[in-house]
Design goal:
alpha+beta, single chain, 3-stranded antiparallel β-sheet, Aspartate Aminotransferase, domain 2, 37% helix, 7 helices, Aspartate Aminotransferase, domain 1, 9 strands, binds pyridoxal-5'-phosphate
Length: 245
């Protein structure tokens, strides 16, 4: 975010038009960068409360945040067919109101999100420690590669671990092996954006963005949710160790 801020400021000054940073904070509720909460880092931010998120509704829901009153006012209008008061329309908007039932569920769950996030952080620390002790992070003599790599973290960041993601050699075989032990994992995401059919008109081909493509072949999200037990985390790491032994 610091780097993006610098770019936005520098180009904003050059062009004398503001470059607005819009945050995709979909699953970052409770996360912080350098003491500032996700959702307050740009001009505006979107959060998702889709049922799989850290803070989840009973169906689809989401919110937008901004610290600019005029923008807040505008967004309130837009979500309600561009209507500032009933049956009067200043502009085109859409039906983007949150269902009351979703709001009711979220209002209750909201009071738990800090402790749920804390538990996720605790589970992540347990994974970190067990991986460090497992020997899986050390380069193997056979190919000079570590079977598992953990993702880099920054001390300025307060993570909320919507996912606990590792990078794994022979990832797809590992995933099948874990599935046979009833350990479910997920791949976020198997196909990078530039190779998605929807973006084919941009003309990218395989090999154009090797970092993203490499990540898509290696990433594996391990079980992560507040109610996870230490025994379950141990069995996941044991399973991964068994695969590589
Ligand atoms: C980073 C990110 N942005 C946006 C979205 C979309 O959220 P929604 O499905 O609520 O529109 C998701 C959901 O998976 C996401 O992970």
């Amino acid at each position: 975010m610091d780097a993006l801020d610098r770019v936005a400021k520098a180009y904003g000054q050059q062009s004398s038009e503001e470059i607005a940073i819009v945050e995709d904070a979909a699953q970052a509720i409770g996360a912080e960068w350098n003491g500032r909460g996700a959702g307050s880092l740009g001009v505006t931010a979107a959060f998702s409360f889709y049922p799989t998120k850290n803070l989840s509704a009973y169906g689809d829901a989401g919110i937008v945040t901004t610290s600019r009153p005029e923008m807040a006012e505008h967004m309130r209008r837009l979500r309600n067919h561009g209507s500032p008061r009933r049956y009067y329309h200043d502009e085109f908007g859409w039906n983007g109101r949150m269902d009351a039932i979703q709001a009711a569920v979220l209002r209750v769950k909201m009071t738990h999100i800090a402790s749920w996030n804390e538990r996720r952080r605790h589970h992540a620390a347990t994974y970190d420690q067990l991986f460090a002790e497992s020997g899986l992070l050390a380069a193997q003599k056979s190919n000079g590669c570590a079977p598992v790599r953990l993702l880099a973290r920054n001390l300025k960041a307060q993570h909320v671990f919507h996912q606990y993601v590792i990078r794994a050699q022979r990832r797809d075989d590992l995933r099948t092996f874990l599935a046979e032990r009833k350990i479910s994992t997920e791949i976020y995401y198997p196909l990078p954006l530039h190779l998605q059919p929807v973006f084919s008109y941009l003309g990218f081909k395989a090999g154009d963005l090797p970092v993203a493509e490499h990540a898509a072949q290696e990433v594996l999200a391990l079980p992560m949710f507040p109610e996870l037990s230490e025994a379950e985390i141990r069995s996941v790491v044991e399973g991964i160790k068994d695969f590589y032994s």
